[in-house]
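2024-03-11 09:14:02 INFO worker-7 job=invfold-0412 stage=load source=structure_tokens
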């Protein structure tokens, strides 16, 4: 019998209890053990809910119970999750978490603590919700140099951008619709400003290079400046706009960024719509491999967390090697990255824009008073310098 304790009975925590209860027989087959939830930690009461019988409000009950083998952390945020997770690992309990903030900030350190205590720290659900991507990166794509990872890593923004693309609606009204439908938080900043995707690409990049990528070093741009007019232009050339988290190796440098990108149907991520996520991994031998699925949501995310529980049971008494050391990575300068840009300027700036950006391709979409074009490939710093000389209404990186 394996006793699991779940920290936090919110969307993911309650999903974990549901997955363990619903699929108990299957979990016994896959892990070889009966898996039971012994405690749920939450500050709230859940009167009338069967969870009330196993509810505790004091973490020390879990930490000090030698019968608890595995702790599932589904509280979110860095504190107190970090302290609880560290204590559990130090007390010989494996930890499985969906918490990307915790993993991005302290992943390498918690992996070290787990190793020192012969247990495991697993975080499959921290990126891509239910999509298997952490274990494939760590345990499957091990024969390749990973040259690039590009993902649609945030369901909320993908829902908003998909709706804007299909319906021609503006950002604010689409955000409101997403909030009304429960696809966006009342405080949507972490999603729409790209912070959530930033932590996720930091985790993936750390795993790809085996070192610590500090999420605060990653250039991050959200979707708040994307408008219905941008989509009008994109539609006129068979393109769409997606929020990408990207990291790539160019020579010895690793570049990482989060930003909206204009893509067309030649890109495998073009058809990833609504709240779905996908991650495209390019290996130097493997080529492109895409992982696609439900990037958020109660049961898909809980399914990934419980797959970690199974993995922890299978590896009881040993630590699965995860290549992610605390050694910091110095990311390449953004200004050196080469990109193409879709640019909108006022009609009056047309001549100047044409003289600044030779070989640009005009984009026509019947928008009055504007001139829009796509530049040739150029360094980010060169683009920024030229763009300062004209009044840019908006600009979006282009990947085709
Ligand atoms: N807010 C996140 C998203 C939840 O929209 O993708 C999953 O990490």
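2024-03-11 09:14:09 INFO worker-7 stage=emit residues=400
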């Amino acid at each position: 019998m394996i006793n699991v304790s779940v920290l936090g009975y919110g969307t993911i925590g309650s999903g974990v209890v549901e997955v363990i209860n619903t699929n108990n027989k299957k979990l016994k087959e896959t892990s070889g053990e009966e898996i039971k939830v012994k405690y749920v930690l939450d500050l709230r009461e859940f009167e009338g809910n069967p969870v009330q019988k196993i509810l505790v409000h004091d973490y020390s009950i879990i930490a000090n119970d030698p019968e608890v083998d595995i702790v599932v952390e589904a509280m979110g945020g860095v504190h107190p999750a970090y302290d609880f997770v560290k204590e559990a690992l130090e007390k010989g309990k494996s930890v499985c978490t969906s918490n990307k903030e915790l993993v991005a900030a302290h992943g390498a350190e918690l992996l070290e603590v787990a190793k020192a205590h012969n247990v495991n720290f697993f975080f499959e659900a921290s990126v891509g919700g239910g999509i298997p991507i952490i274990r494939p990166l760590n345990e499957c794509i091990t024969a390749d140099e990973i040259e690039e990872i590009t993902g649609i890593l945030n369901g909320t923004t993908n829902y908003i951008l998909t709706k804007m693309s299909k319906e021609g609606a503006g950002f604010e009204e689409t955000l409101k619709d997403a909030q009304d439908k429960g696809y966006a938080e009342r405080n949507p900043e972490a999603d729409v400003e790209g912070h959530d995707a930033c932590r996720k690409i930091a985790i993936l990049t750390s795993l790809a290079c085996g070192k610590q990528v500090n999420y605060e070093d990653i250039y991050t741009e959200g979707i708040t400046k994307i408008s219905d007019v941008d989509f009008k232009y994109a539609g006129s050339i068979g393109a769409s706009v997606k929020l990408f988290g990207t990291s790539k190796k160019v020579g010895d440098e690793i570049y990482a960024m989060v930003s909206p990108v204009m893509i067309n149907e030649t890109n495998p991520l073009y058809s990833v719509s609504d709240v779905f996520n996908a991650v495209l991994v390019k290996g130097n031998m493997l080529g492109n491999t895409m992982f696609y699925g439900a990037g958020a949501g109660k049961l898909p995310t809980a399914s990934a967390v419980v797959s970690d529980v199974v993995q922890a049971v299978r590896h009881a008494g040993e630590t699965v090697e995860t290549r992610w050391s605390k050694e910091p990575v110095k990311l390449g300068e953004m200004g050196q990255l080469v990109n193409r840009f879709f640019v909108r300027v006022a009609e009056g700036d047309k001549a100047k824009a044409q003289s600044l950006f030779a070989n640009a391709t005009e984009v026509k979409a019947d928008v009055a008073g504007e001139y829009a074009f796509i530049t040739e490939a150029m360094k980010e710093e060169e683009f920024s310098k030229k763009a300062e000389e004209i009044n840019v209404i908006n600009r979006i990186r282009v990947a085709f």
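2024-03-11 09:14:09 INFO worker-7 stage=report msg="The two ends are 53 Å apart (CA to CA)."
2024-03-11 09:14:10 INFO worker-7 job finished
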